[in-house]
Design brief:
2 domains, six-stranded mixed sheet, five-stranded parallel sheet, 13 helices, 15 strands, about 40% helix
Amino acid sequence: MIVWINGAFGAGKTTAARELIDLIPNSTLYDPELIGAQLRLLLPAKRLAEVSDYQDLPIWRRLVVDTAAALSSEVGGVLVVPMTLLRQEYRDEIFGALASRRIPVRHVLVRPDETILRRRIAERPEPVVPQAGGGGGPETSCRQWAYDHIEPYSAALEWITSEALVIDTSELTPHEVALRIADAVRTGEAHPCEIVQSDPPTGETLAAGVLLFDEEGRVLLVDPTYKPGWEFPGGVVERGEAPAHAGVREVAEELGIELDRLSGLLVVDWEPPAPPRFGGVRLLFDGGELPAEVAQRIRLPDAELRAFRFVAEQEAQRLLSPRRYERLRWALRARERGTPIYLEGAAPL
């Protein structure tokens, strides 16, 4: 199990975490900040210069999960993680990957009043540290870094407070904060975050996606809770299952919509392996048009999908990863022509 202590920079997460490991038996402090520090030493300066925060590096998010899994296997018990997460898609990616490794996360937000937060930041020591993203840029003080992130923190409160246990720490000492968290973990008040993800594949997979359209010809996309970016309804074809049946099944599970049939196959795309991903064959089927009264009955599984929307092709380009967008683009052309298209790496052969 992981107790993830979220909060603004300067809110006292790490201090409370150090107190907490004395209160929760068989617990270990795990600070992902250390991974960011090592990446500043390991990655080329050119790559570091592309980001202003190491959380924007996919390798950081992957290593946070892999290290947590390795630590859990090595020491067992509870990992106490003091780490600010302000981008919901990064939270989804990390917590979802932990869920796939059967590591539940109890998400706690330590939240002092903003006036008190600013006072605590002002009273912090003022060592000078490299920018979080590295890249050889000018040095930034810890204090200024914390001030600069108050606004993004405030903007993120809506989604954080909707699913994390919020503890007002305005009038609490670090030890009292730790006592409060420990009690919430013991009683179950800090419940596991309900983000789920299927087991990571151990080889190439066959996946079936379904394109559904509204009466204006816009395509339906869904926003998964467990990974960044938008997707098509669909999923991995189970052993012995027909791909078209898998597409119909996934639409029912994800949207609550029972399709009588699929209109046809639009795209076959062979996705090459790109370690740590195995790749495989990706199919896109035409699910046809959803009448407005049917679209109004869509119900999402909260633990897997956050939202859905019908979008035109131009907006889909903004929401989808480049490879998924290319798959969609060719699928739309195939739908116009009435002929399936074969792709390799999202490009026609």
